[in-house]
């Protein structure tokens, strides 16, 4: 299928925000920048992950062969999670040895064991793939994607609200000691499912909009988002990875304003090779961001001279995020060339591995 340029642009901007947000998260720990960093962190997290779940639902449709679909999802979502986990084991060994003088095998094995309950501790950033896997399975097996797009909008809103309150009222509940109700992100996936279904409605609806409208909706939604964030509750903290959503009204309002803003921005920015590359490799970039999240960001943030300045902190985060993405480029190229099957492209042919499950090509989903 031919790639849609504005979707790649939107995904590229979103991935930049992932790198930016994870770096500024470490600045929050530094006293000099805590308030400014927390403000920017809350702003980005208010909408960037809901946006990715909405984008994931753009091409959702009713699944007829659920067995083949499950296999395909496993290869596209879960195989990369475990591939990054294996890739990260030697990184944890080196990091622990440099940081403590010991490899800390017990610590590494403990992190690996958490994958059994859907908690990817070796590369925590891949939580999104696990949650998306669960979300897509629920949508497929319950036949939730309707041909009537307005039904997807209404059911999406229902699942977000239902998921929100189900998490609120079952917080801390465990099935048995050590196993929380949200294992494999089954609870958070209900909220993600809402954005997923609404994303399907958005993609259908957006086809009817004239291009010039996006030049109006971009500044308008950004202004409304800033007003909402500033005057309703700028302290509202949303972290879907840990099932934190803040208050329901600012959560919904900021998420949808942010989604519309990002999609509008994706339409008005001219297509370019950089955004096309990033958009086509968001899965690998997501996993590689774990290198910076776990091993680099905190140490780098502590090394940079302190300035309690909004401008300085913003420029610092932009520069670090851009260079982090640039550093990923050769790794992305190598993974795509030699083992694309393990990192989101299971049906690709390559010099080291053949397509992981050729028969799925002949299945209609």
Q: What can you see in these coordinates?
A:
By secondary structure, the chain is an all-alpha fold. The protein is built from 13 helices and two strands. A hairpin with a 2-residue loop joins β1 (174-176) and β2 (179-180). Mean pLDDT is 93; it is low at 359-365.
Short description:
This protein is an all-alpha fold and 365 residues long. The chain contains 13 helices and 2 strands; from the N terminus they run αααααααββαααααα.
Which short descriptors sum up this protein?
disordered C terminus; about 375 residues; mainly alpha
Give the secondary structure arrangement, pairings included.
Layout: H1 5-27, H2 34-45, H3 48-56, H4 66-100, H5 105-113, H6 127-141, H7 149-169, E1 174-176, E2 179-180, H8 188-206, H9 213-231, H10 248-268, H11 273-280, H12 282-303, H13 310-338
Antiparallel strand pairs: 1-2
Fraction in helix: 55-70%
Order of helices and strands: HHHHHHHEEHHHHHH
- By secondary-structure content and strand pairing, the structural class works out as mainly alpha
What global shape is seen? globular
Rg on CA atoms, Å? 20 Å
